[in-house]
Amino acid sequence: IRVLKLSGTQVSVNSFVALGTVLEQLEELHISGTIQGLQEFCESIRSSPLKELHIEDCENLNDESLGIILSNCPVIKDLSLAGCCGLSTSGLLQVTMLPKLERLNLSRLHNALDDDTLQCIVSSNRSISELFLSGHENLSRDSLEFLLSSEMLQFVDISFCFGIGNDDQCTEIVTKRD
Fold first, then answer.
1. C-beta of residue 69 within 8 angstroms of C-beta of residue 43
2. 128 has pLDDT over 90
3. Coil/strand/helix, residue 146
4. Using one digit for the tens of pLDDT, what is the confidence trace for 77-97?
5. Span 41-54, pLDDT tens digits
6. How many CB atoms lie within 10 A of CB 147?
7. What is the DSSP letter of 136?
8. What does pTM read for this prediction?
9. Phi and psi at residue 120, in whole multiples of 5°?
């Protein structure tokens, strides 16, 4: 198996932990929703060739679990943590340990993402070309200015980031830069 998607399924703790052995071959793993046994699963992961990891809307993903996953999956190129509200600002900073990261989805993380954290992540991961930030009220116009000055970013989604400004304000910032 190269791709595994677990969404809206009931997986026992023992079965989920047993999946850790499958990771030796997996290139893509997609998990959504609250998963029992997530911590045990994370601890069972050993050096994995995962290139794409999407853990979305998983409220029980915490900073410790994320750290374990990222340290054991160093070749991730596409990471989505959208809607994982159990993460904190310091937890998100662990994303900087992924040197090959090209696509990052940090949408709907509530208060975990702010201007400083975003700037640190983007500055540390020079290979990121696609960034998804939808639904962050804590991001300000400073974030938009910073993102516009980034030479590596090719695509940025700032939908529903009301702290950045309304459409007219954003358009004004973008057109002043041209």
1. no
2. yes
3. helix
4. 999 999 999 999 999 999 999
5. 766 666 678 899 99
6. 18
7. -
8. 0.87
9. -65, -45
Structure tokens at 81: 């943590």
Which tokens is 7 given?
Answer: 């969404």
Name the token pair of 65. 């679990």
* Cα distance between residue 95 and residue 149, in whole Å: 21
Tokens representing 87 are: 């993460």
Tens digit of each residue's pLDDT (9 = 90 or more) over 61-81: 899 989 988 988 889 999 999
H/E element, 155: strand 155-157
Rounded to 10°, the helix 141-149/115-124 angle is 10
First to last CA, the chain: 47
The more confident residue out of 41 and 4 is 4
- Residue position matching structure tokens 């040197």: 99
Amino acid letter for position 61: L
Alpha-carbon distance of 77 to 173, in angstroms, equals: 30
Structure-block tokens of residue 24: 């030796």
Residue 63 CB-density burial (10 A; 0-12 exposed, 13-18 middle, 19+ buried): middle
